[in-house]
Amino acid sequence: MINIFKNVKLAEKIVSHVANRTPLMASRTLDSLVSAKRVIVKCENFQRTGSFKFRGAWNCISHIPTQERKYGIIAHSSGNFAQAVALVAKILHIKATIVMPNNATPSKIAATRGYGAEVVLCGNQPGDRDKISTELIEQYDYKLIHPFDDLNVIFGAGTTAYEFIKNYSSIDLLLLPVGGGGLISGCSIAAKGLDPRIKVIGIEPKNADDTFRSFQLGKRVPVENPNTIADGLRTSVGELTFPIIQEFVDDIITVTEEQIIDAMKFYWERMKLVVEPSGAVPLAGLLFGAIDPSLIKGKKIGLIISGGNIDLTDFFSLLKQKHTKTKVN
């Protein structure tokens, strides 16, 4: 435990000089709704590239020897890690190729290209990303940067909670979203390393509940074709992340699609925060999930918003259409 926590502290030194120190926010309305002493939200939607993924990407790529960077790097991602790797590569002057599924959010594809990376689109089935990435690595000798199943990515992600707890002092409960498990793995190491009292609970979409089922069974159960609005959480929990989750995470619970949307609505309306579905999942767990009330009532609770990259094209198109109709009428 001590040795693995040292890796998060080292990552903090590497990441802190380049990543944004993201703000902490609170809502008295939210405190009252859940009867908490205080609910504090760590806003990684204000991180560079709009998500916590920048932390892990920077820490991981910083560890790659210069000689191994010369042919370029490759990553596969539905969006947030893609943007993070693209920006880090741009800053460090490394060629980046990103494999993204065809159903990735258009704005995330555009942003990844905007940071200078080459985007290669692939199918949407499990294994499609790995297949294309492997083929490109064999052809061009790229260095693979895995979005979550890499220890340096995990330790980098853990700086989110490390920075949070160091800046706010103590919390009693930490709630995080779960997809591949990189964020909750790193953050649970950080939280338990700083204060073993802290309870860590992962929140997962019910429509992509592989980590929940794996946690219950004690072995990895991959998800198949998950259909959830939380596109960043569609990936199955990783081989490296799952054992860490088993050791440092206290529980995994699930929430419905409707609950995720209601949590987004609360953030947008009551806290004026633009949060993507994956980032709203922890709040959905707090508001609607099966968390023991004794862990919430009168307690200090930390939530991590993992990102804020959501495509608002349809929303603004509807507003324009409505405004145009009003003027015509």
Main sheet: strands, sense, barrel: 6 strands, mixed
What is the terminal separation in angstroms? 67 Å
Q: Indicate the mean pLDDT.
A: 93
Q: Mind telling me the C-alpha Rg? A: 19 Å
The amount of beta strand, in percent, is 5-15%
Give the helix level as a range of percent: 40-55%
User: Ranges with pLDDT <50 over ≥5 residues?
Assistant: none
In terms of quaternary structure, what is this? single chain
Number of H/I helices: 14
CATH architecture of the largest domain: 3-Layer(aba) Sandwich
Q: Please state how the strands of the largest beta sheet are arranged side by side.
A: 1-2-10-7-8-9
What structural category characterises the helix and strand content? alpha/beta
Top CATH class of the largest domain: Alpha Beta
Per the CATH scheme, the topology name of the largest domain is Rossmann fold
Outline of the structure:
The chain is an alpha/beta fold and 329 residues long. The chain contains 14 helices and ten strands.
